Fold this protein.
Amino acid sequence: MITRNLTKLSADILDVLVIGGGAHGATIAYHVAKAGYRTALVEKNDFCGATSASSLKILHGGLRYLQHLNIKRMRHSIAARREMMQLAPYLVEPLACMMPLYGKGLRGKRVMQAALFLNDCIGWDRNRDLPAAIRLPRGHIVSEKKVRETVPDIDGEDLHGACVWYDGLAVDTERLILEYVLGSMTYGARAANYAEATAINKGDDDLYQVTIRDRLSNEIHQVTTRFVVNASGPWFEKSIQASQKKDTKQKWALALNIVSKKKIFEKYAVALEGHTQYEDRDAIIKRDKRLYFFVPWRGHTMIGTEYMESIADPDCLQVKPEMIQNMVDGVNAIYPPAQLKYEDISFFHAGLLPMHSKSEENNIQMEKNSTFFVHTHAGFSRVLSVKGVKYTTAPHIAHEIVEFLRKQLQLESGIEKLKDSHVTAGQWNSDQLQYKDILERKYGQRAVRILSYMQNEQKADIWIDEASELLKAEVSYLINEEMACKLSDIVLRRTGLGTAECPGRSVLEKLVEYMGGILSWDEARKGQEVKEVLQRYAPLVF
Ligand SMILES: Cc1cc2nc3c(=O)[nH]c(=O)nc-3n(C[C@H](O)[C@H](O)[C@H](O)COP(=O)(O)OP(=O)(O)OC[C@H]3O[C@@H](n4cnc5c(N)ncnc54)[C@H](O)[C@@H]3O)c2cc1C
């Protein structure tokens, strides 16, 4: 069974300690452990609780990188997307993306037809070993009529049709990262959430002492490791600064998506041009507007992404009502028939991403490539920092880091590996079969692990909330086997219950009662847990 155990995590000398349990840290821990190194992963909050939870959930194949003629980057993206889809097919769906085409030239049919053809050629192996249900079809051009059916009342002047291509939609980005964390543990890694790396010190014999604070118990643990991988996202300079007192150099932009209760488009993620001028400085084939995607998801529409320069501390990232209102106004300017109102917004995604520069005209250029680098200052030559710009390509950086380690570090044998617990047997009996679909949709093959918890529940009292399809047994499983420690872990990162909108106070209260029973929470703690979850939806109206 997989458990959170910081004493065990710090018991032996590690080969690699990974700091940060977002897309990069989790995929790195997985691949490094799979390669046979003694690995541990520490995350100061919950896994996938920061930038990686804020993505627009598109696993890109990199069609847009054709603008930069960057085939290498496309290949990395396609391979990384396929890996994510293979690892957890139950969490990913093909996403049909539609971009209306106007006039001739770069925005016309001929150029886009050629681009789609190239995209399919470059991604010839995009579906290798993927289950049939999630294979990505070829791109194609659709008629003007089809566009008008999909995007009613679209600005029609010079409209000729649309190009359609397919990417992956990570329906539950948070569980997808958790799959990597749990997967790393089956390869022998140790992992803990609510475990913060507070200092990195160089010891003797090329070893580092990393101080870890257990944020649940306040206990301090010392971890000894040969290498440190700092994958702490927007904290990446801060995590090192604590030990190095270096100045911050990286510029950041706050990236924002809004989630609307209104279903704006049904079957397609529609890409529409923004209303302000934008020039991508690196593009060889230039467009003059940034694209905004309207992505159908969980019966809602995600819309994004907007970028604004930010000097915010990532620990205190705040989205103000005016930022949401600006986006709502922007959407209405891009697509007036949406008639979006502030009250339609049920959730938002915000995170800090590495920014390259900002022009006088407020033209924000984001950094384009994820990288990692080895620190060169004295004593830190075995500390690597990751600067990640995409969720999709995180596995690619993980592979590069494994390659780097292979050149530096001899493998020791004898890593204790757990059996891949999610595929261990479990038989659905006739009473349980009615829950099979619900559970497999959420947990894939791990659903069978929930059966033993189901046996402990009274048949007549099996639900926490039937309308939300939330079973008591699954919550017990998540606490015992997936390190769910707080109400927000279940609501926002294990079940998807509250990722599109607030599940409502009564559901939260039933859930906190049940969790409190297992985790011995008193009334004050339960109140605090509910308050913390509700804060995630401020400043929205609900
Ligand atoms: C609005 C938005 C839309 C996006 N859309 C897409 C998209 O559609 N497709 C795509 O591919 N990408 C997208 N991205 C980009 C992508 O989400 C990010 O590039 C990626 O998730 C960054 O992952 P990360 O692991 O580097 O950072 P994070 O997810 O921020 O992870 C870093 C982790 O480190 C932890 N940490 C920090 N300090 C410490 C410490 N001292 N000790 C322990 N842990 C620590 C943090 O708590 C955090 O969980 C989007 C981003 C945003 C914000």
Remarks:
- The first strand starts at residue 14 and ends at 19.
- The chain has a mean pLDDT of 92.
